[in-house]
Amino acid sequence: IAERLPVTISLNFMAVALTYLLAVPLGVMTAQRAGSFFDRSSEFLLFVLYSLPVMWVGLLLQAFFCEGGVIEIFPLKGAGVDMPDRYSVWQLQLEYLKSCALPVCCLAYGGFAGLSRYARSGMLETANSDYMRTERQRKVVTALIEKAKTAGISKLVEGMKVEDVIDRLSGIRCGFKQTSCPDQLACALKQYVENK
């Protein structure tokens, strides 16, 4: 057990890391596009992926991608190489990652399918909650108020010379704030005149 435990722990750690690195962004993307073709097709593919038995997928991956298979990319077994002194550190790391790739994929795909759907539903639930709707409405109201202020200021100074506008708007305060929209416009006009 002691000999195989480090390999098992490292494979599971890589599988969990891969699951979270891929599933959470996919869940967020599908939540942003809820109801779209991308959302529905990914939901279908993830459901199929979640339904596949791990042992069967492992055998298929071995048959297609391991030594003696259709495309010989990955080693069939083992996590090391013969005669490691002939390899550089980077080559040894690459060989180790190649030997871990298929087991990590088999360990990760079921969790990936489930977690991405959980992330999607969590995002949709949060996006449709009361405080998010209130925040969106507050942003719309604030934007309308700012637009109304800007329209009012533009009507106030329409047809005036730049210097007169600066004199009229400089120093206007907004409640307890140190500045206001008219004052900021006056400052911008001052910089414009100085840089002209």
What count of helical segments does DSSP give?
7
How would you classify the quaternary structure?
Answer: single chain
H/E element order:
HHHHHHH
CA radius of gyration is 31 Å
Number of strands: 0
What is the helix fraction of residues, given as a range?
Answer: over 70%
Cα-to-Cα separation, first versus last residue: 79 Å
Strand content: under 5%
Arithmetic mean pLDDT: 81
Shape: elongated
- Structural category is mainly alpha
Largest sheet: none
Uncertain parts: none
How would you sum up this structure, described in words?
The chain is elongated and about 85 Å long. The mean pLDDT is 81. Helix content is 73%, strand content 0%. The chain has helices spanning 5-32, 37-51, 54-65, 89-127, 130-156, 162-169, 181-195. It starts with a helix and ends with a helix. Helix 3 (54-65) crosses helix 4 (89-127). The chain is built from seven helices and no strands.
Short descriptors:
single chain; 196 residues; mainly alpha
Helix/strand layout:
Layout lengths: L4 H28 L4 H15 L2 H12 L23 H39 L2 H27 L5 H8 L11 H15 L1
Q: What does this entry show, briefly?
A:
The chain has 7 helices and no strands. It has helices at residues 5-32, 37-51, 54-65, 89-127, 130-156, 162-169, 181-195.
